[in-house]
Recover the amino acids of this structure.
């Protein structure tokens, strides 16, 4: 009886966010978009390791060189109480869910603000 319950929990964890959770995280991302401390955090602590981590994630979730069938989508890295909380996204595309799941497993440096969020546009497909 425990096994079906665990399967249900793991399926729900991979599902895209509700529009409300995504919108709330997006609002926080917009709040810090032009903040100087946030800009320094992005430049020095967030994007350097993320830039190195993304190619293997893309390859694991969508192997091969073709862009056909790959989605373009947006994720929001959400922090709560100064620690990474979740990757927020609303795409139900399997590749987007895979990418978001693998991004959620990365280690992120503590942000400059406890409720920080960062909007990231991922372009994997054709324009």
């Amino acid at each position: 009886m425990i096994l079906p319950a665990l399967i249900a929990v793991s399926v729900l964890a991979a599902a895209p966010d509700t529009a409300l959770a995504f919108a709330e995280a997006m609002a926080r991302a917009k709040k810090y978009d032009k903040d100087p401390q946030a800009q320094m955090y992005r430049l020095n602590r967030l994007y350097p390791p993320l830039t190195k981590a993304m190619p293997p994630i893309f390859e694991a979730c969508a192997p091969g060189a073709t862009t056909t069938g790959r989605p373009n989508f947006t994720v929001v890295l959400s922090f709560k109480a100064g620690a990474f909380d979740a990757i927020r996204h609303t795409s139900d595309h399997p590749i987007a869910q895979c990418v978001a799941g693998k991004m959620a497993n990365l280690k992120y440096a503590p942000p400059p603000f406890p409720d920080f969020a960062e909007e990231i546009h991922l372009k994997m497909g054709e324009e």
About this structure: The two ends are 46 Å apart (CA to CA). Residues 1-15 have pLDDT under 50 and may be disordered. The longest helix spans residues 36-61. The beta strands are 72-80, 83-88, 117-123.
